[in-house]
């Protein structure tokens, strides 16, 4: 039996959204383009990934014409505030520090942090076992912050401008392990480069809320929140989720 109440509510939300975003609106989506499977630049130069497809689905709900703009991770919030793009969909964790600079929507997925290291190696995740090891993470991420807050002085922390560069040093033997988002590690472990490595221990942080960032006090946040509810309600979110993951990340 159809849930007419749910259909009516979804339709009403879509109508409100359509009226709040002019048909002629042109918005720019900001992302990194170096964080597969969430955002990446394909061989043909096209920017894609889970983040980008979710952003494009939100634009469709808002009846807005959108284009994707990439930015280096270290300067991605300043780029948003400099109006190089209108909203940021780049798997960014919602933190108190970032909330001083930008506003966030409701979370569009939840992540975890977990170590990876060579298969079969002597790698345990308690402090005593980690002491003296060289651990990598991407700079200005929750993983990097977690290492600095919890293992400073215990491990030798190496921070990188991109996640890919952390993985490159892991494969070259310059790192004993990497701490990163579980879903990003999961994707990399499936690659040829990642096959000799595996997850180690349980997630060290399992409630990492990921949001879409906008400039402070920008009414676009409310429009994005309405659009996010709509794509979840009509199944669009699940279709995108299932394209990238065999489990729900919402």
From TrEMBL:
<feature type="domain" description="Solute-binding protein family 3/N-terminal">
    <location>
        <begin position="26"/>
        <end position="248"/>
    </location>
</feature>
<protein>
    <submittedName>
        <fullName>Amino acid ABC transporter</fullName>
    </submittedName>
</protein>
<dbReference type="InterPro" id="IPR018313">
    <property type="entry name" value="SBP_3_CS"/>
</dbReference>
<keyword id="KW-0732">Signal</keyword>
<dbReference type="InterPro" id="IPR001638">
    <property type="entry name" value="Solute-binding_3/MltF_N"/>
</dbReference>
<comment type="similarity">
    <text>Belongs to the bacterial solute-binding protein 3 family.</text>
</comment>
<dbReference type="GO" id="GO:0030313">
    <property type="term" value="C:cell envelope"/>
</dbReference>
<feature type="signal peptide">
    <location>
        <begin position="1"/>
        <end position="23"/>
    </location>
</feature>
<dbReference type="Pfam" id="PF00497">
    <property type="entry name" value="SBP_bac_3"/>
</dbReference>
């Amino acid at each position: 039996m159809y849930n007419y109440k749910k259909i009516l509510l979804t339709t009403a939300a879509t109508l409100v959204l359509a009226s709040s975003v002019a048909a002629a609106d042109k918005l720019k989506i900001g992302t990194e383009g170096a964080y597969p499977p969430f955002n990446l630049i394909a061989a043909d130069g096209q920017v894609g990934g889970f983040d980008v497809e979710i952003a494009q689905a939100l634009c469709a709900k808002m009846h807005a014409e959108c284009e994707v703009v990439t930015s280096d991770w270290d300067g991605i919030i300043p780029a948003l505030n400099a109006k190089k793009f209108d909203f940021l969909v780049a798997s960014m964790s919602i933190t108190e520090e970032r909330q001083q600079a930008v506003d966030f929507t409701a979370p569009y997925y939840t992540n975890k942090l977990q170590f990876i290291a060579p298969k079969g190696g002597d790698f345990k995740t308690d402090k005593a076992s980690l002491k003296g090891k060289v651990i990598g993470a991407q700079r200005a991420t929750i993983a990097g912050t977690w290492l600095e807050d919890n293992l400073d002085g215990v491990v030798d922390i190496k921070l990188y401008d991109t996640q890919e560069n952390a993985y490159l040093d892991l494969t070259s033997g310059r790192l004993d392990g990497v701490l990163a988002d579980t879903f990003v590690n999961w994707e990399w472990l499936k690659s040829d480069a990642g096959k000799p490595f595996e997850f180690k221990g349980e997630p060290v942080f399992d409630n990492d809320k990921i949001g879409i960032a906008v400039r402070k006090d920008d009414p676009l946040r409310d429009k994005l929140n309405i659009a996010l509810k709509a794509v979840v309600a009509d199944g669009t979110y699940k279709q995108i989720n299932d394209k990238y993951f065999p489990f729900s990340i919402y």
